[in-house]
Amino acid sequence: MAVLGLDIGTTGSRAVLVSSDGQLLATSTEFHEAFSSPETGWAEQDPDDWWRAAQAAIQAVVGEFDNEDIEAVGLSGQMHGAVLLDGDGAVVRPAIIWCDQRTDEQCRWLTEQVGASRLIELVSNPALTGFTLPKLLWVREHDPEAWKRVRSLMLPKDYVRFRLTGERATDVADASGTLMFDVANRCWSLEVLDLTKINPDWLPTVHEGIAVTGRVSPAGERATGLRAGTPVVAGGGDQAAGAVGMGVVRPGTVSTTIGTSGVVFAVTDRPALDTFGRVHTFCHAVPNRWHVMGVTQGAGLSLRWFKDTFGLDDSAHDTGMDPYDRLCAEAEEAPVGADGVMWAPYLMGERTPHLDPYARAALVGLSASHGRAHVTRAILEGVAFSLRDSLTIFNEMNLPTTRIRLGGGGARSSLWRQIQADVYGQAVNVLAAEEGAAFGAALLAGVGAGVWSSVDDVCNSVVDVAHTIEPVPEHVAIFEDCYRRYRSLYNALHPLG
Length: 497
Known about the structure:
- The chain is of the alpha+beta class.
- The protein has helices at residues 47-62, 104-114, 116-123, 132-142, 144-149, 156-165, 172-175, 190-196, 218-224, 238-245, 300-311, 323-331, 372-396, 414-424, 436-448, 455-462, 473-493; strands at 2-8, 12-19, 24-31, 44-45, 70-77, 83-85, 95-96, 152-154, 169-171, 181-182, 187-188, 205-207, 212-215, 231-237, 252-258, 262-268, 280-283, 290-296, 342-344, 362-364, 401-408, 428-431, 465-469.
- It contains 17 helices and 23 strands.
- The relative contact order is 0.13.
């Protein structure tokens, strides 16, 4: 008996097959085509490329097992993307994805039309460029020919669900990031839809994360190898599903995840709001729970950008060492605090705490004595400072932070783990196995299919902490001063922000 989890990420689609005792049986990742950026700040992907990659990833894991043993499928994926379909279910135009920053004008219009405080009352969040609704308004205004053809609106993972089952459905966690969802009451906001003239009939039905939303169709079986009739569970947006996979399902447990973006995620038993809108308040994939989330747009992206643009010479390819490992090994030779070099990680604008799509990244404090090791360490530290901004806001909101669990690619670097413990001034946990959102989607599928009794129970059973990293007191003291200086960077760099 097994369950399958599928995550439609930015760079690729990942499938995992998980046994009834929580063990990984098989994994496969199929990479997507790189997102296109036809203008500065734009980011688009082809939904059919997600489906191509999803098919390949599923086929790779299903092919190793009897599909009769797969009890259910759970879905997760990148949030906020605008997938537009016509009446025949065909993609109308490339999807505008989460990191796209073109919609500042539409966000300003929404804030003026609805009112900043009223918008937070209705959907628990301010109008931000990353969210789905401003993208829809942009298409309606700037691509009217495409808009005329639209008959259905979906989020990225839910397009894959549609191709797999024929059903138009989503989950409460992913829907929370659209700016069209009443987060407190876990349903679409008819008032926002009416104010913006978005047809509610175009939206998918919305479900709790463990609910069965449909079954694999005969066409889905032919495309993937999954058995027709296999239940497909709602799942969750990548952050909520990833939190389930890390056991972050109860108040007091917080995760910091460094992928392309960086996310700090805290569970609540009520829809806790930041009146300034600096963090997001969303439904959790766990029924009757919510979460608060701060986002750094350019977290792992910062290190990848540096590696790809400046980081390595040709000789690096002869060492046999992973380029990220080499950069981090070099960075360990630089002193704590990077000898005054600081990194503002605003490569794609910023969400938390600045809500500024026009923010731009900067290296500050360079001198002729600094080398690549200092710059790499400054990037690792700057991302950690940016994540600490969210923890600072959580503290202002009186949200408990009793445990911090690390996830994403950043958790694989021993240096970055220690930097996070030292910057946060708190012990951090590393899990025995961290398979990300696909694993969480599989656990949600298992609960939906009755393999496990509840999300709490399965997390207690299968999520284990491998070790804990304690902060070094001397480093904490240095980083307190560094963080104070980091906090002044944004205003110095963006005086009109």
